[in-house]
Design a protein that fits this description.
12 strands; mainly beta; eight-stranded mixed β-sheet; elongated; single chain; four-stranded antiparallel β-sheet
């Protein structure tokens, strides 16, 4: 069993910054790519940023130049630094660890965190 626990969400004014963290724990053998998704009210969940095990990153066009994803493989943790936040960034942010290998299984598993609310408002 693997758990992803997000932290760092909150209320921030437009133009402000937040840093999200997501720590994976449990019976982990290896984690491949990790990503951050978000879902605003009435909208579908969308990919915000992803990072491979080797550090290759990709971003949604809407956050390029403002958000930075990084990871610490020694801690099984992924981060999302969010700068120049806009009201349209308001959403619940979810951490994702797809294709995760766990102890005692040959399969690949997809795990999600519980989500953390980010609200950008004056």
């Amino acid at each position: 069993q693997v758990q992803l626990v997000e932290s760092g969400g909150g209320l921030v004014q437009p133009g402000g910054s937040l840093r999200l963290s997501c720590a994976a724990s449990g019976s982990i053998l290896s984690i491949n790519a990790m990503g951050w998704y978000r879902q605003a009210p009435g909208k579908e969940r969308e990919l915000v940023a992803a990072i491979s095990s080797g550090g290759i990153t990709n971003y949604a066009d809407s956050v390029k130049g403002r958000f930075t994803i990084s990871r610490d493989n020694t801690k099984n943790t992924v981060y999302l630094q969010m700068n120049s936040l806009k009201p349209e960034d308001t959403a619940v942010y979810y951490c994702n660890s797809p294709k995760t290998r766990i102890i005692g299984s040959l399969g690949l598993y997809d795990y999600w965190g519980q989500g953390t609310q980010v609200t950008v408002s004056s």
